[in-house]
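Limitations

Structures in this collection are predictions, not experimental determinations, and the ligand pose is part of the prediction. Treat each record accordingly. The example that follows, with 2-acetamido-2-deoxy-beta-D-glucopyranose as the small molecule, is included so readers can see exactly what is and is not provided: the inputs are given verbatim, and the output is the predicted complex.
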Amino acid sequence: YNLLLTLPFAHRFGHRVLSRSVVLAILATGIAIGIFSIRSPFDDMHQKRLFVLHHENLQTHAQDLHIAAADGAPGLELLVADIAKEFGVTDAPASFITMNDNNTDWNPLYPFSSFLSPYKVDLPSDPSFVPPSPPQEQFIISAVNSTVDEAAGTRSFTLKVHHTGIIWTVIAFDAHVLKWTLDDSPPDEFARHHIKEASFYGEDTWSVDLTLKLPLTGLLKVDYIGIGEKRMWPGKKSEKAGGGRAMMLFEEFDRYLEETTGGTVDALLLGCVGGETVI
Ligand SMILES: *[C@@H]1O[C@H](CO)[C@@H](O)[C@H](O)[C@H]1NC(C)=O
Ligand SMILES: *[C@@H]1O[C@H](CO)[C@@H](O)[C@H](O)[C@H]1NC(C)=O
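Predicted complex:
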């Protein structure tokens, strides 16, 4: 169900600024790293890889933190408990999350996310927080040219995704898709679909034509998520002011990890923004 099975391992490349010409090389290396980290357990000579997603809901501005290691990293539970104490809501322990296709929080790493055993840490809400205006990131999901064919029992439309300031967008929805403008044919059944896009800087729309089998249960609910272009640590460290609360937290988190683990943990810190809509 994927346009590209790619992973945003951009932070591997430190401060190098991403551009069209290096993105492909990064994708290839990213996949190699991903496969390696699944197949071989870490030992003392290798840093443990930790995936940390900061998630901000673009509608409610609620934020939370999602943490996972791809292997059964020993000591992870303790580390996560400590992270919850340090950064989380007072007296709220980290919760272990069941990973399945309905879990939208890890969609930026889909389908690799199915190998993860994640924890969630609720972050305190800051009553003084005012969302920047105009917003740095904007997601608009719309159904263009929507038509219902009662006789054929179908609804057809162009699903358009507009994602200013956001890359690696993923949408997920439940439907019986009869036709779409993707490479492979959709499964002939009602199913959950993930459509992932590997965007380049400066491109902020994509679309897919869909024909869905009726009846729909009302309108189509679409979960959407992506990575804030300026919310990647340490890749965007030098532009951290543009990354809002995610980057402020990552800066602290990076320092905390260095102090508590002495550099044995290599964390991929990604600031995600998302929400849900019906079209
Ligand atoms: C996902 O959600 C759908 C509808 O809410 C439900 O039917 C399905 O069983 C869920 N899948 C899993 C793996 O929990
Ligand atoms: C919607 O339909 C019009 C008229 O057929 C067409 O020109 C336009 O490109 C369509 N829009 C999209 C997003 O496909």
